[in-house]
Amino acid sequence: MQSITLIGAPVDEGGAARGCLMGPDALRTAGLPDILRSLDHTVIDRGNVVPDRKTERSHPNNAIHDLVDCAAWVDTLQDIAFDAAKNDSVPIFLGGDHLMSAGTVPGVARRAAAEGRPQFVLWLDAHTDFHDLDSTQSGNLHGTPVAYFSGQPGFDGYYPPLKTAVDPENICMLGIRSVDQPERDRLVRGLIDVTDMRQVDEFGIARPLRAFLEKVRAANGRLHVSFDVDFLEPNIAPAVGTTVPGGATFREAHLVMEMLHDSGLVTSLDIAELNPFLDERGRTARLMVDLVASLFGKRVMDRPTRRY
Prior knowledge:
The chain is an alpha/beta fold. It has one domain (3-299): Arginase, Chain A. Helix content is 35%, strand content 16%. The protein is built from ten helices and eight strands. An eight-stranded parallel β-sheet has the order 2-1-3-8-7-4-5-6, sandwiched between helices. Helix 9 (250-263) links the parallel strand 7 and strand 8. It is globular and about 55 Å long.
């Protein structure tokens, strides 16, 4: 049994397709608190975060939009995540577009540093989100979190000062299949472990994940999992504004979550980019709830027969 804290992060300013602000309540409506309690966990729901401390700022890249609001979310979520990661409770941050991770990851990383432990991040996503503020052509700031929380240059004066960066060697990206050229150039020079879907097709999804989990265990690290809905194949998870064909299958996604549960290493979780406005009768929200249940102990043999 674990103590779990649910925190809504209805971030809607980081992308172009509006609707992610409804994500936290869709996950609740789909039964996330109830299924976690049915697995004998203690669940506390702290409601939805409201950003504050907005400071007027602009950037020479005219493509960028909603910079003031995005910076406020990053600032607020860092403090919320730092507080939520204390003691033994596992915070689940309910998104909200993936800009949320520019706040949640630095927050939990600061908690890890306070405990004298390294922070690791498993990034489950179709995208690397490794743009800085100069390189983004879309201006969608949900494409910047990994560059920011790994301490890359280009954010000073725009995002909050980064108190604790995540070592790029402690980041594993899994399921990648859509990378812009500036991100690719930066990743080639860096140390982040990137497993794209070509590698998953050749070698399976378990092998790179198992190697990463062994690394986390050997270092006695804290592990944050950031799960973007577009990690999944769009046919099973349509409720996301950034769909990319060729994503993880139902069974591959459940295997990842089951392996994470078996490891006992996960200390915090993001659920990002759920856009209920694009869903089909709640099917994506229900799938995400089912995947989170696998992370917290629901077994493969527990799946009920369903009619569709």
